[in-house]
């Protein structure tokens, strides 16, 4: 607290100090209470106005009247708050960067999976088309094979038939030759007059 003393004090108040109860004077009280200081009188001069002497009285608490002490904790608290908020901001930024990377990686993985599915689906479709084409070709080849086998069987049957006919015709030709030889011999024997033997007549073997 600041205590001021008026510029003009009466002379009686400066010379006579009443004694306190118990016989103590203000000087004795000042020795007992050193924390409380007596105000100094102000001296007035003609050239200047009254100069007031002020002196700060320090209270026992020490924190109520000093503004610097109240400002310093606020600054310290603000500094601590800023120091706490800075790591939080950095951590939030790091988390956001990590989340952004995860999101991009997830999108990239989805695109890769989609492209892979499309490639697999296209490859599967190509395989299905190839299988269908091979099935058609296989069916055509089977039909051709059946046709060839059918004709082969017919040719084989015809060959067997022709071979049988060939054997039969050879046998007939052989019989005809024998008949011709016999007739030729018979004709030659009839031309000799001394020959009294009558040849036996053989039936014709030609059908």
From TrEMBL:
Protein localization: Nucleus
GO CC entries: nucleus
Gene3D superfamilies per record: 1.20.5.170
GO BP field: positive regulation of DNA-templated transcription
The UniProt record lists the keyword Transcription regulation: yes
Domain called BZIP: residue spans: 99-162
Residue stretches of biased makeup (Polar residues): 39-62
Region (Disordered): 38-120
GO molecular function: DNA-binding transcription factor activity; protein heterodimerization activity; transcription cis-regulatory region binding
Record-given protein name: BZIP domain-containing protein
Taxonomic lineage from the root: Eukaryota, Viridiplantae, Streptophyta, Embryophyta, Tracheophyta
